[in-house]
Amino acid sequence: MPLVMPIYGTRPEAIKMAPIVAALQQSSSLDQFTTVTGQHRSMLDQVNSIFGIVPDHDLNIFAPGQTLNGILTKTIDGLDKLFSVNRPDAVVVQGDTTTSTAGAIAAFYHSIPVVHAEAGLRSGDLFSPFPEEANRKITSQIASLHLAPTSTSRANLLRENIPSADIVVTGNTVIDALFMTVDKKVPFTDPALEELAARDEKILLVTTHRRENQGEAMRGVGRALARIADAEPDLIIVVPLHKNPLVREAVIPAIEGKKNVLIVEPLPYGEFTRMLSMSHLVLTDSGGVQEEAPSLGKPVLVMRENTERPEAVDAGTVKLIGTDEDRIVAEVDQLLNVRGYYDSMANAVNPYGDGKAAARTVAAIEQMLGIGSRIADFGD
Ligand code: UD1
Ligand code: UDP
């Protein structure tokens, strides 16, 4: 049987690859061999354990504070050695991390076909998000099969002269992962969150980590949260903080000690999706959270100047607000206090998927490997 190798290394890739790994494990026509780079360590291992994935191979490249070039070169070197002894018929990479692009380059140089999940997202600005916009464009140049989550991302690829026969619209597997998890009501590990779940409070859920926001912009986010906490004593602000020390140093000083702010460790995926469903609104610079929250009808304020995910913005559930401190405070105030405004944004929309993206992914790989026929695109 043809051997397919999913390769991933960070939290969001693990969440979005988990449904693909599960679908490959169930396939009667493909074998799979899961390889992780360990670009993230604790946050990656947390997701794998939730989805019951034990990687077949771990490059274990993690080092605190590692550079992008360090991640790239260690990944390529590790995969180069692995492909010499265990050569798959195709690799699957996901999205736009450095693990993802390094995996694609390493496979391409071994003439192994690259399957790119979540292909075709474009912000239009090479430097934002950095380095992700460049990463995904590089991967598009060398992939053999492009799995676009939406027709918008398909159109982006066609504009770049990717042949339409090599593009399949699958939906985003993040919605598969969300549907697999969100109704389970996983107990919170942190007693403060379980206690919060028992009360009927308005929750503002906040995540931030983007490299281009680190430094002064992220300190401004911290100051904005402090001002919101003071202005809205009945609002509970929950901040699951990324493991990156640069994020922690920027955000914590302004908000620590405030009694309506709960700063917690990165939440295991099941706990995070439960918190998302308990939240009143979401403030984030995350890509994945922008895709998940609309599905639950939660208004999302995105602390970025642009987005490669315009679908939920068009649907009115997501709003781009940038990172200016005063603007963040004003936008949250509007959502909490302007009558009718919250309801106009709180629409449950599912532009990113229907929970069947992993099945379409496996079918598209089978077709690429000559053992299946072309499937219908998601949304058609
Ligand atoms: C990476 C991805 C980004 C993705 C994000 C998801 C790249 C270039 N960026 O960014 O696209 O949105 O992951 O979270 O690939 N750290 C730990 N433990 C962990 C994870 C991170 O200590 O489990 C710390 C380390 O000090 C590490 C730092 O966080 O050096 C940054 O991690 P890194 O993978 O370099 O980039 P991210 O900014 O997390
Ligand atoms: N997430 C999580 N725990 C947290 C915060 C986020 O499990 O404490 C999940 C979230 O549901 C989403 C993913 O992590 O699926 C997003 O990861 P991140 O924001 O780190 O990266 P991005 O999506 O921006 O690449």
From TrEMBL:
Keyword Isomerase applies: yes
Enzyme Commission number: 5.1.3.14
SUPFAM superfamilies: UDP-Glycosyltransferase/glycogen phosphorylase
Boundaries of every UDP-N-acetylglucosamine 2-epimerase domain copy: 23-366
Assigned keywords, A-Z: Isomerase
The keyword Transmembrane is assigned to this record: no
InterPro entries on file: UDP_GlcNAc_Epimerase_2_dom (IPR003331), WecB-like (IPR029767)
One Gene Ontology molecular-function label: UDP-N-acetylglucosamine 2-epimerase activity
Organism superkingdom: Bacteria
A Pfam family annotated for this UniProt entry: Epimerase_2
Homology family: Belongs to the UDP-N-acetylglucosamine 2-epimerase family.
Name used for this protein in its record: UDP-N-acetylglucosamine 2-epimerase (non-hydrolyzing)
